[in-house]
Amino acid sequence: MFKKLMASFGVGAAKVNLVLDNEQCRIGEKVTGKVIVEGGNIDQGIHTLDVDIAMKFVIKGKEFTRVADTIRVARDFHIKARETREIPFEHAIPVHYPLSKGFVTYFLATKMDIAQAVDTGDTDRLVVLPSREMALVFDALEALGFKEKIGSGKIGRLGQEFEFYPTTLFAEPLKELELKFYSENNRFKLFLELELTGGYMRNGLEHHTELDLPAELLAGGSVQEAAIFIKEFLENELNQVSVQGPRMAPSYHNLQHGTHRSGFGGFMGGMVAGMLGGAMLGSLFDGDENEEAGDTGGEEGSEDGFDFGLGDFGDDDF
């Protein structure tokens, strides 16, 4: 009787521990592991055993934590005194998760609801890496002499944005390249914003374009072939700009009302906007018709994106 009473207060009750096979997981692949339940001093019933995938970020000095998904590990079972039980789990990381890059961090919160006792839990870090297709693009840009800017990976109105500056091939015509990933219905697309130097038009003028990456190029996984494909595309775009002038408006506005549950079609990182909701988005972006406008190094509270104020979390080189 005394043991049951103490267990109801959490003393000598069952405990839970989550063990990941790998704390780093690519978008499009599965995070796997097991939950270890250790029985306490008495037999106990477990109502629910869940793992929350939570995301933490900071907006204008205020920290937010949102649950991205909940993994239902087990329901309604008993754990005997001193028994140890291992329960495997897995969860696919979808494209609308932002990367653990720059300003977004993740953690797994394991929660066990014990019948007539204090609930218990465990917390573990998770690092979300780019999909193999995304990594191929990053590697190809690096091969072309592009370097990622400090602060790249901010969340804009549609999702996560990555910013690069050229150091070799395109250093004369380009000041900056910004990209957003879009993936839906077997399409893998880059939405690009090219900030031009005075070589083609006046300094700071922006040209918006998009690039569909062929499935066979992505499947091949060759960084050299991807770099050549992107290089030829950029050269062609810059030649068109020199003749016709830049395209001032982005072409993705017709995709903003997609059916994906992130609320923003297949934009990578779009789930953050969906989590925050329309009211929060409005307060952050009202008066800024073009979320790409402005310098990423602006002051806190600027309207061009979220100023998270956190350091990198995970592998810088992906």
Automatic annotation (TrEMBL):
Residues 286-318 are annotated as: Disordered. This is SpoOM family protein. Residues 286-306 have a biased composition (Acidic residues). PANTHER family: SPORULATION-CONTROL PROTEIN SPO0M (PTHR40053:SF1). Signal peptide: none annotated. InterPro entries: Spore_0_M.
